[in-house]
Amino acid sequence: MESMCWIVKSSFNNATLAHFFVRYWYYSNTIKNRTMKKIVGVSLITLLLGFSFTALAQEQDSEVKKDVKKGTNAVKKAGQKVGNKTAEIASKGKAKVTDAVHKDKVGPNNEVIYIDNHSKFYWVDKKGRRHYVKAHQLKNKEVK
Predict the structure, then answer these.
(1) CA angle 57, 74, 55 (to 5 degrees)
(2) pTM flag (> 0.90)
(3) 5 and 59 share one domain
(4) Nearest-5° Cα angle at 122, 116 to 126
(5) Statement to judge: residues 60 and 125 lie in one domain
(6) How far apart are CA 103 and CA 90, in angstroms?
(7) Do residues 126 and 89 touch, judged by C-beta distance below 8 A?
């Protein structure tokens, strides 16, 4: 091992060896810098393009979300209308079967008046809810 080191030391003098390492370090450092600059440049371009595509995708996504919201709201309103109409028909059907219909009187807005088991007057709205009224709020039914 020592003989090999002696051969290396004898074939190169210290100035030549130092000059070799300095030149190697300088050129390798420059190549590293160039490579690093290329990597950083490509990364920055990729990052900027990524942001622009992300912004574009968000704009398209927001338009799609608006369309989905419109569709969702339309379906929700239609479902509420169907549900309210179903409740109204069910409440009125139940009232006709279980309670008596007042023949001579109507409600404040010409609604059909029902009389329950406790002799209370009520009418059914579009959502199927009962609205109780007092006897003095009832109007006479118009004869046609």
Answers:
(1) 10
(2) no
(3) yes
(4) 125
(5) no
(6) 21
(7) no
